[in-house]
Design a protein that fits this description.
heterodimer, A: about 220 residues, alpha/beta, Rossmann fold, 5 helices, B: alpha+beta, 3-stranded antiparallel β-sheet, elongated
Chain lengths: ~220, ~80
């Protein structure tokens, strides 16, 4: 599988993401945001975490105008897989490739810690190695992860099985680290080829790091 | 032409920063504050003197970049 990891000024998770996919035996290329085309035959585009353009104005507000984004949008529109992690999720929201928007965390603090998540839907490529209701543990690290969507939008997400992950405690009881509507930690689009989540699966790929749960997520895209 | 753009979270969208500042004002003894909402003020100096043209241009800027209209409203004032 060919993976492209897009790098913006201020991105800081590109090497971890590349490492994770190389560990899974995949061919990974870092793509600078000024490029106008993606590598040939790319299967998966990852928009990694970080603070693109210093989060000026709003998180990810400026990254969406980078030259590479037209190619990323075209890849998504023709059904190619796109995964946005943390700042990458915020980009997909700003680009309207995913529904909703991000606000400052409800407690106005940057939250950086392991957090339990509940797997809500598994009929998609990203979470196909999990069972619905699984409780997993993956790090979060963000100041603007307070997911907002209006009631009509939330109903559509529920009806189409687009909610991927929700925040919970280790027993599975809903627990909110940031004030997100319906405890949402990650969503996908209706066509289920564009995925966004605030937690960092690339930071949970080795037992040494405390969890292997992220590896099973990233593996979802590997044939 | 000087243009002032105000960007504000929509009514009904909870404002975490406003809430934190409201709480802080309360702990300083300012108990008469009913609500606090925090927004952004963006000052632009735009070429051209035709108010209608400038306003249309700034409206486009707001829709495309300055505001995220999923959660934010904006107002435009021309000097």
């Amino acid at each position: 599988m060919k993976v492209a990891v897009v790098v913006f000024p201020g991105t800081n998770c590109e090497v971890d993401t590349k490492y994770a996919y190389e560990k899974l035996g995949q061919d990974v290329e870092l793509v600078w945001h000024k490029q106008e085309t993606l590598p040939q035959n790319v299967d998966l585009v990852v928009l990694p975490g970080g603070f693109s353009y210093g989060d000026y104005l709003r998180s990810a507000a400026i990254a969406k105008f980078s030259p590479i984004m037209k190619a990323v949008e075209a890849h998504a529109k023709k059904g190619g897989y796109v995964l946005g992690i943390c700042n990458g999720f915020q980009m997909l929201l700003e680009m309207r490739l995913l529904p909703g928007a991000m606000k400052r965390n409800a407690n106005v603090h940057f939250v950086s810690k392991y957090h339990h998540l509940k797997v809500e839907n598994t009929d998609n490529q990203f979470l196909r190695h999990f069972n619905k209701g699984d409780i997993i543990n993956v790090p979060i690290a963000h100041g603007e992860g307070n997911y907002f969507i209006d009631e009509a939008g939330l109903e559509r997400l529920k009806a189409n099985g687009q909610i991927l992950l929700t925040y919970c405690d280790k027993k599975g009881t809903p627990a909110n680290p940031n004030g997100s509507v319906a405890y949402i930690a990650g969503v996908c689009n209706e066509a289920k080829n564009v995925f966004g989540l605030m937690p960092h699966p690339e930071r949970a790929i080795e037992a040494l790091l405390g969890s292997l749960d992220g590896k099973a997520m990233l593996e979802g895209f590997v044939a | 032409m000087k243009v002032t753009v105000n960007v504000q979270l929509k009514n009904g969208v909870l404002d975490p920063q406003g809430k934190a500042v409201h709480h802080a004002l309360g702990s300083l003894g300012f108990n008469g504050v009913n609500d606090v909402r925090i927004g952004k003020q963006i000052l632009l100096d735009v070429a051209g003197n035709d108010a209608k043209v400038v306003k249309e241009e700034v409206t486009k800027m707001c829709e495309e970049l300055l505001a995220n209209t999923v959660i934010e409203d904006y107002t435009i004032e021309l000097a």
